[in-house]
Automatic annotation (TrEMBL):
One of its GO terms (molecular function) is methyltransferase activity. Gene3D superfamilies: Vaccinia Virus protein VP39 (3.40.50.150). SUPFAM superfamilies: S-adenosyl-L-methionine-dependent methyltransferases (SSF53335). CDD domains: AdoMet_MTases. Keywords: Methyltransferase, Transferase. This is Class I SAM-dependent methyltransferase. Residues 63-162 form the Methyltransferase type domain.
Length: 416
């Protein structure tokens, strides 16, 4: 068993008192919480490039599964699509386990296995190997995040990958100032309910000059209940990573970043129209370009990344293969096609920041035929039969892929 320091002991007590995020199993009848990482379509695309057969059992680990958002989402998606495999929930919080189990029971999910423990104890635990590992909102709370990521990599199957989320500094402006204040007013040694009461009192009293008052992208202390407030403002250990710091952490574990979600957000060309600025940005390496986008936007409060082993080759995604089946993540192709503006520009908003994404002339015709079951060959045949030239259809297909893959919306489905 991994030794705990004082902050780790306080963290364990926090998640027993306030399982995070706050969830009620009765809500499962109303909605499925959808997000990144660990959406099944994203795993198929960013980790496996659409080359892993849908009929091959998927072995998944949710490391630090908490109250179960990622676990329930992925297990439900696997069950709904008839995908074989199992999701292993791993956490040391008994209260979080009760919540996650109740949510699974409410949905009738039988493809989840619940394990008690810390991800730091994975090496030698007998668990794994896993084809996909989720670690969302955990590494930045560990005493040694590098050791945590190495522990995850130790149980990753060949050809597999990870989806992680860590805090980012600029979008969390104001958070750490109030954490400093609350360490003085509500020290970590106090009981969690007492600390929550003090934090609520302080939030009512902080002046308008407080930076968190001015930060519209952070609202867990307002909308997340006591669990959200505690996790944001009272957490005993909370580290944020810039893009270069995240890249260094990932490389240290022998891994590489396959995708930062959404890729468009991390491209400075999305925000810089000035050709001189673009030219200077073009001379930067990929990590530096992403760091530039992070720095000039200021609204990134988290980084979501898909990772694979650095030593393993990166197979190209078969976008130009006629047999490849494109799929729209949480979008309906015909509906999106009808909603496109006449000028062919798709407006996209990321945490208050609007980006105009130009789409090719045949975008609507292509999107209207994307249903998650039809391959590119048949889609292109339909577009050509409607009057387009084959060359134009191919060019516009490639342009549509370039635009919408970067939004994490047009992906490759798992192979048959």
């Amino acid at each position: 068993m991994t030794a705990r320091d004082a902050a780790d002991t306080q963290l364990a007590a926090q998640y027993e008192a306030y399982p995070y995020p706050a969830r009620d199993a009765r809500d499962e009848a109303k909605r499925l919480v959808i997000g990144s990482p660990s959406h099944l379509r994203e795993i198929d695309h960013w980790i496996f490039g659409g080359r892993r057969p849908a009929g091959q059992a998927l072995r998944v680990l949710m490391a630090g599964g908490g109250s179960g958002d990622g676990t329930i989402m992925l297990a439900q998606q696997m069950q709904s699509l008839g995908r074989p495999g199992r999701v292993t929930w791993l956490d040391r919080s008994a209260q979080a386990k009760r919540v996650a189990q109740a949510r699974a029971a409410a949905r009738g999910l039988e493809n989840i296995r619940f394990e008690d423990g810390s991800l730091l104890d994975l090496p030698g635990s007998g668990l794994g190997p896993f084809d996909y590992i989720d670690c969302c909102g955990v590494l930045h709370h560990l005493p040694d995040p590098a050791a945590g990521l190495a522990a995850l990599a130790s149980v990753l199957a060949p050809g597999g990958g990870l989806g992680i989320m860590v805090y980012a500094p600029h979008g969390r402006t104001g958070v750490y100032m109030l954490q400093d204040a609350l360490r003085l007013l509500a020290p970590p040694e106090d009981a969690p309910p007492d600390r929550v009461e003090i934090a609520k009192r302080l939030w009512k009293q902080v002046p308008e000059t407080a930076w968190l008052r001015k930060n519209p992208w952070i609202d867990d202390h307002i909308k997340g209940g006591d669990a959200g407030l505690y996790d944001l403002l009272l957490n005993p250990r909370d580290r944020a990573y810039s893009v270069p710091q995240l890249a260094e952490l990932v490389a240290g574990a022998g891994l590489r970043i396959e995708c930062l979600v959404e890729p468009l957000r991390y491209d400075p060309d999305s925000y810089l129209a000035d050709p001189k600025l673009r030219a200077r940005a073009r001379g930067l390496d990929p990590v530096a370009r992403a760091a530039l986008a992070e720095a000039i936007c200021g609204n990134m409060g988290i980084h979501i990344a898909y990772l694979t082993r650095a030593a393993e080759p990166v197979p190209p995604r078969p976008w130009q293969d006629d047999a490849t089946i494109p799929v729209l993540r949480e979008l309906d192709g015909p509906t999106l096609a009808r909603a496109l503006r006449p000028d062919g520009v798709l407006p996209v908003t990321f945490d208050g920041l609007r980006v105009a994404v130009p789409l090719p002339r045949l975008a609507a015709a292509l999107l209207a035929r994307i249903d998650g079951r039809t391959g590119w060959g048949e889609i292109l045949d339909g577009v050509v039969a409607a009057g387009a030239s084959r060359d134009q259809a191919l060019r516009d297909r490639d342009a549509l892929v370039q635009a919408m893959e970067r939004m994490n919306r047009l992906l490759i489905a798992a192979s048959a």
